[in-house]
Design goal:
Helices cover 62% and strands 7% of the residues. It has 138 residues and is mainly alpha-helical. Strands 1-3-2 form a 3-stranded antiparallel beta sheet. InterPro entries: DNA-bd_dom_put_sf, MerR-type_HTH_dom, MerR_fam. One of its GO terms (molecular function) is DNA-binding transcription factor activity.
Length: 138
Protein backbone atom coordinates (compact mmCIF):
# COMPACT_ATOMS: atom_id res chain seq x y z
CA UNK A 1 0.00 0.00 0.00
CA UNK A 2 1.36 3.39 -1.04
CA UNK A 3 1.74 6.00 1.67
CA UNK A 4 2.15 9.76 1.50
CA UNK A 5 4.03 12.11 3.74
CA UNK A 6 2.12 15.05 5.10
CA UNK A 7 3.68 17.57 2.69
CA UNK A 8 2.78 15.52 -0.36
CA UNK A 9 -0.71 14.88 0.99
CA UNK A 10 -1.17 18.62 1.58
CA UNK A 11 0.01 19.45 -1.91
CA UNK A 12 -2.18 16.87 -3.62
CA UNK A 13 -5.26 17.74 -1.57
CA UNK A 14 -4.88 21.50 -1.94
CA UNK A 15 -4.86 21.95 1.84
CA UNK A 16 -2.15 23.20 4.16
CA UNK A 17 -0.10 21.00 6.47
CA UNK A 18 -1.63 22.87 9.42
CA UNK A 19 -5.12 22.05 8.15
CA UNK A 20 -4.23 18.36 7.88
CA UNK A 21 -2.94 18.36 11.44
CA UNK A 22 -6.13 20.08 12.60
CA UNK A 23 -8.30 17.53 10.76
CA UNK A 24 -6.29 14.79 12.41
CA UNK A 25 -6.89 16.28 15.86
CA UNK A 26 -10.62 16.62 15.07
CA UNK A 27 -10.78 12.98 13.97
CA UNK A 28 -11.70 13.81 10.36
CA UNK A 29 -8.75 11.81 9.12
CA UNK A 30 -7.14 8.88 10.87
CA UNK A 31 -3.93 9.40 12.81
CA UNK A 32 -1.02 8.49 10.57
CA UNK A 33 1.68 6.01 11.20
CA UNK A 34 5.04 7.49 11.99
CA UNK A 35 8.32 6.44 10.50
CA UNK A 36 11.28 5.97 12.85
CA UNK A 37 12.39 9.42 11.67
CA UNK A 38 9.14 10.87 13.06
CA UNK A 39 7.60 11.68 9.69
CA UNK A 40 3.87 11.12 9.38
CA UNK A 41 2.84 8.70 6.64
CA UNK A 42 -0.75 8.51 5.50
CA UNK A 43 -2.40 5.78 3.47
CA UNK A 44 -3.26 6.98 -0.02
CA UNK A 45 -7.02 6.69 0.64
CA UNK A 46 -6.64 9.61 3.07
CA UNK A 47 -6.35 11.79 -0.04
CA UNK A 48 -9.86 10.74 -1.10
CA UNK A 49 -11.23 11.68 2.31
CA UNK A 50 -9.50 15.06 2.19
CA UNK A 51 -10.96 15.76 -1.24
CA UNK A 52 -14.41 14.88 0.16
CA UNK A 53 -13.86 17.23 3.11
CA UNK A 54 -12.56 20.08 0.95
CA UNK A 55 -15.43 19.82 -1.55
CA UNK A 56 -17.96 19.62 1.28
CA UNK A 57 -16.51 22.78 2.84
CA UNK A 58 -16.66 24.52 -0.54
CA UNK A 59 -20.38 23.72 -0.59
CA UNK A 60 -20.84 25.35 2.81
CA UNK A 61 -20.88 22.35 5.11
CA UNK A 62 -19.34 22.89 8.55
CA UNK A 63 -16.80 20.42 9.90
CA UNK A 64 -19.44 19.01 12.24
CA UNK A 65 -21.78 18.47 9.29
CA UNK A 66 -18.94 16.85 7.34
CA UNK A 67 -18.33 14.46 10.23
CA UNK A 68 -22.02 13.53 10.06
CA UNK A 69 -21.79 12.95 6.30
CA UNK A 70 -18.71 10.78 6.75
CA UNK A 71 -20.49 8.80 9.45
CA UNK A 72 -23.49 8.32 7.16
CA UNK A 73 -21.18 7.03 4.47
CA UNK A 74 -19.87 4.23 6.65
CA UNK A 75 -23.11 3.45 8.48
CA UNK A 76 -24.87 0.42 7.13
CA UNK A 77 -28.43 1.42 7.96
CA UNK A 78 -28.80 4.67 5.99
CA UNK A 79 -29.98 5.42 2.48
CA UNK A 80 -29.33 8.06 -0.12
CA UNK A 81 -32.38 9.93 1.18
CA UNK A 82 -30.52 10.52 4.46
CA UNK A 83 -27.71 12.24 2.57
CA UNK A 84 -30.14 14.14 0.35
CA UNK A 85 -32.01 15.47 3.39
CA UNK A 86 -28.73 16.91 4.70
CA UNK A 87 -28.19 18.70 1.40
CA UNK A 88 -31.80 19.91 1.34
CA UNK A 89 -31.37 21.29 4.87
CA UNK A 90 -28.24 23.11 3.73
CA UNK A 91 -30.19 24.59 0.78
CA UNK A 92 -32.84 25.91 3.19
CA UNK A 93 -30.15 27.45 5.38
CA UNK A 94 -28.53 29.13 2.35
CA UNK A 95 -31.92 30.49 1.26
CA UNK A 96 -32.45 31.98 4.73
CA UNK A 97 -29.00 33.58 4.61
CA UNK A 98 -29.72 35.02 1.16
CA UNK A 99 -32.98 36.51 2.44
CA UNK A 100 -31.14 37.99 5.44
CA UNK A 101 -28.48 39.45 3.15
CA UNK A 102 -31.13 40.96 0.86
CA UNK A 103 -32.77 42.62 3.88
CA UNK A 104 -29.37 43.92 4.94
CA UNK A 105 -28.67 45.18 1.43
CA UNK A 106 -32.01 47.02 1.35
CA UNK A 107 -31.34 48.60 4.76
CA UNK A 108 -27.90 49.76 3.66
CA UNK A 109 -29.27 51.16 0.39
CA UNK A 110 -31.92 53.07 2.37
CA UNK A 111 -29.22 54.37 4.71
CA UNK A 112 -27.05 55.42 1.79
CA UNK A 113 -30.02 57.25 0.28
CA UNK A 114 -30.19 59.50 3.33
CA UNK A 115 -26.94 61.18 2.35
CA UNK A 116 -25.90 62.99 -0.82
CA UNK A 117 -22.25 62.69 0.19
CA UNK A 118 -21.74 66.43 0.49
CA UNK A 119 -21.44 68.76 3.44
CA UNK A 120 -19.65 68.53 6.72
CA UNK A 121 -19.27 65.40 8.74
CA UNK A 122 -21.24 66.92 11.59
CA UNK A 123 -24.26 67.15 9.26
CA UNK A 124 -23.97 63.58 7.94
CA UNK A 125 -27.43 61.99 8.08
CA UNK A 126 -25.93 58.50 8.08
CA UNK A 127 -23.94 59.14 11.25
CA UNK A 128 -26.95 60.90 12.76
CA UNK A 129 -29.12 57.86 12.05
CA UNK A 130 -26.54 55.45 13.50
CA UNK A 131 -26.41 57.49 16.71
CA UNK A 132 -30.19 57.44 17.21
CA UNK A 133 -31.39 55.19 20.03
CA UNK A 134 -33.60 52.28 19.06
CA UNK A 135 -37.24 53.11 19.35
CA UNK A 136 -39.09 50.92 21.83
CA UNK A 137 -42.74 50.08 21.52
CA UNK A 138 -43.53 49.74 25.23
Amino acid sequence: MKTLRIGELAKRSGLSVETLRYYERRGLIPSPERLPSGYRTYPEQTLNRLIFIRRSKELGFSLDEIVELLELEVAGDVSASDVKSRVDNKIEMVERKIADLKRLQHSLQTLSGLCCGEGSLSDCPILEYLHQPESSDD
